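ugh ok fine here u go
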Amino acid sequence: MITPYSRLLMLSVFLVLFVAAAVGCDSNSSSTATRTPVPTGEKGPVETTDEIPIASRQDIKLGFSQLGSESDWRLANTASIREAAKEAGIELLFDNAEQSQEKQIEAIRRFIAQKVDVIAFSPVVQSGWEPIMKEVKQAGIPMIVSDRSVEVSDSSLYVTFIGSDFTEEGRKAGKYLLDKMRDVPGPISIAELKGTEGSAPSVERGKGFREIIAKREDFRIVASEYANFTQKEGKEAMRALLREQGSRIDALFAHNDDMALGAIEAIEEFGLRPGEDIVILSVDGTRKALEMLAAGKINVVVECNPLLGPNLMQAVKELMAGRTLPKRIVTPESVFTQAIAEKEAAGRKY
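structure:
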């Protein structure tokens, strides 16, 4: 006979066994269940995501073809691009074409084969780029033109052009000469030293300069020679001009500082005083030219800023982020006279 006490005792035992079984089942499932492993770094667990890691998304490969190393300006331009790429964390594939359009085209083709993200180049001359630029576009690689412009029938072949307004630089030089000679009776005989034949600076600076000096009919360009933006050829060309024209030359417009520096040497060897017997106008703004300006051997220097690296890297990043760029990005520039030359020269990076 089961008494009430016995029934209560049996119920208690059943409850104890049920609870033990339940706990055992839960413990067993916890020990055998499959868990997704959490990756750990040197400092412990890290969060995971199905997206590409941020560092990988920022990896950018830029192919850049530099036209050469013909002047202090160009060396400063190259240094700016290298430094800015490093600071921006952009992988830079750099090629120096040594003043050869053929080498630039070869370099651009290599960049296509290397599947870079963006191609940029400073063209040695204005024309002859359309075929290779079409190849770049067909490869789906955006292209940036830096420093010098190109002549193409289809402007969609490049995304943007970053650089100076060379025509305006020529105008600034012309305006200075008009003001300098405003009380000097004509005729005023002007010699001109141009850079590389067919290059944008040579074409456009000459155009802007002529546009302004045309305001005085007695301003005459009596000689115009190419000197390839180098000090050596600038000196040689000026020597030849002095042999032909002698002291009849009233002013010299040199399309860059290196040629102006070479011309100064030739003028002094000829027995004339640069900056006094011959008014000298130059373009660039290198430290050496500003020192000559402070010394009175150059009368004015129109700035052409070579430090385009930060502008270029910012444009590359904007492109890779899917943003739209303006077709033309003009760098701000100044005109240096003797009054401010010494101060500017002291802080110059190039």
